[in-house]
Design a protein that fits this description.
There is one protein chain. It contains 7 helices and 2 strands, in the order αααααααββ. The protein is mainly α. Strands 1-2 form a two-stranded antiparallel sheet. The chain is elongated and about 85 Å long.
């Protein structure tokens, strides 16, 4: 009888241990997936100011100059050539004159191109577009794929948003580079649960 009870205890213990290990491994895998969905502020910083997930370090000048008019989009959302085109055309920046002095333009261009989707240490080619003429982040294939289930009128006709380019209207932590779909709250419609 004691041998049967020991065998059952061993089997139950093995099952519980296996379940705990499987849950732990799943959790580790999920955290990588979740962090890769857009956040670069979840404690993955390395000593260079960037992070292990491949996102660019913060740049105060970029935040000040570009973030004063709109969300300072993370550089990995466009390819280097696209950022260069954008910086070379600031006199007509989506219908606005956003020209900067030469030194600032050069510094910001270096930051954006150096941390673009297809460059260097922050290489993230899935965001790099093959359509180099399309500079709007909201028209990039990855963006359209991520937003394809959201009714257009919830955003475009929404007086609190008005455009899909207003990431920070729904992504509460967009300014920190966190675009996690699980934290989306659409004004007037509530939490988005895909």
């Amino acid at each position: 009888m004691k041998e049967k009870l020991s065998a059952w205890r061993w089997a139950l213990g093995s099952l519980l241990l296996s379940s705990a290990l499987a849950t732990g491994l799943w959790g580790l895998g999920s955290s990588d997936v979740m962090a890769d969905r857009g956040s670069y502020t979840r404690g993955d910083d390395d000593s260079s100011g960037g992070n292990r997930r491949g996102r660019a370090p913060a740049n105060a000048q970029y935040q000040e100059e570009c973030g004063s008019c709109h969300l300072a989009y993370p550089p990995h959302l466009l390819g280097g050539e696209q950022w260069q085109q954008m910086m070379n055309g600031l006199e007509d920046h989506f219908g606005e004159n956003a020209e900067l002095d030469a030194a600032t333009t050069e510094a910001l261009s270096a930051y954006l191109v150096g941390n673009a989707a297809d460059n260097g240490r922050y290489n993230n080619r899935r965001y790099a577009s093959n359509n180099l003429d399309q500079l709007r982040i909201s028209q990039q294939s990855f963006f359209l794929r991520k937003h394809d289930e959201i009714p257009t009128n919830w955003v475009v006709d929404n007086p609190e948003i008005g455009s899909f380019s207003r990431c920070d209207a729904c992504h509460q932590n967009a300014a920190k580079g966190d675009f996690d779909e699980h934290g989306v709250v659409i004004p007037g419609h509530g939490r988005w649960d895909d």
